[in-house]
Design brief:
It contains eleven helices and eight strands. With 299 residues, the protein is an alpha/beta fold. The chain has a single domain, classed as Rossmann fold (3-Layer(aba) Sandwich), CATH 3.40.50.
Length: 299
């Protein structure tokens, strides 16, 4: 009888015990499960140049048995500042989506002038192709993205052809994979405009220093130079009150891509500045991103 009574007490206790998982919101549940879902390969050197090791972090899904869609993120800072660690919160929506995430650091102006950062973007992609099996990266479903200078690098990494010769420093025999899409957050599309044009920015000018062929290099690293049919789909997000990278950069890219029938979309943020969007605006942006990816059959 005592044993039966004890068993009943235990059963009642189990039934009455609070369901802790039920007390978590969906976002809190995702955060609690993230460590069980992802593993991290930090500070992997993908290129050594200019006496500097360019590094990236890879967040990849635990237990994946098939290649996974992967987003490659480039931080901002006018090619002169910033680091990958400062962009960690910006990659969280992609982890929640279930994608692999690659967070890239590249040579800044103090290490090497233009076109070094652009070269690094291409070399990061080549490195990922070489390591695709190790980290379960689907090289046919790579999406490049980033903000400001990172938006520019997301475009150059997706648009620059092999014939431009900007991948010659890259290590390894693997070819640079062609991204399936690019998502450009208020990136520079005409580099000449921000180094010697009416919208000159001191930080941007630092990237060029005293290069004797500034105009030639600026054109060589400008996304507008590489607009042509057959490019991957491009989504551009830009505030129409941006005082750092003028909204016209986005408009010119959108018009040029449309003219040659490249699938693209310009999401204008009314009154939006250079990032620092409100929570409501960011919700709208990520709804648009998901719709864009679904349209391209990447979701």
């Amino acid at each position: 009888m005592k044993r039966l009574f004890l068993a009943v007490l235990i059963l009642v206790a189990v039934i009455a015990a609070p369901d802790l998982s039920a007390q978590l919101s969906p976002s809190a549940t995702w955060a609690a499960h993230a460590d069980a879902t992802y593993q991290t390969a930090p500070n992997l050197t993908y290129l050594t140049a200019s006496n500097y090791e360019s590094k990236l972090d890879i967040y990849y899904r635990r237990g994946a048995t098939t290649p996974q869609p992967t987003v490659v993120y480039f931080h901002g800072g006018f090619w002169a500042a910033g680091n990958k660690e400062g962009a960690v919160t910006k990659i969280l929506p992609w982890m929640e989506l279930g994608w692999n995430v690659v967070n890239v650091e590249y040579r800044l102006a103090r290490v090497a002038p233009a076109p070094a950062a652009v070269e690094d973007g291409l070399c990061a992609l080549r490195y990922l192709a070489a390591q695709a099996k190790t980290y379960m990266i689907d090289v046919t479903r790579i999406v490049t993205t980033g903000e400001s200078a990172g938006g520019h690098l997301s475009l150059t990494s997706a648009m620059i052809p092999d014939t431009a010769g900007l991948d010659r420093q890259c290590a390894g025999p693997a070819a640079v994979p062609k991204p399936a899409a690019a998502i450009n957050w208020f990136g520079v599309t005409d580099v000449g405009d921000v180094i010697d044009g009416p919208n000159r920015a001191n930080a941007a000018m630092t990237w060029f220093g005293s290069l004797p062929n500034r105009d030639e290099v600026a054109k060589r690293v400008s996304p507008l130079t590489y607009v042509r049919p057959g490019l991957p789909p491009i989504l551009t997000i830009h505030g129409d009150a941006d005082r750092v990278v003028p909204y016209q950069h986005a408009v010119r890219l959108h018009d040029a891509l449309t003219k040659v029938s490249v699938p693209n979309q310009l999401l204008t943020i009314p009154g939006g500045g250079h990032g620092n969007f409100t929570p409501g605006q960011r919700t709208m942006i990520y709804v648009t991103i998901r719709e864009f990816l679904a349209k391209q059959k990447l979701l």
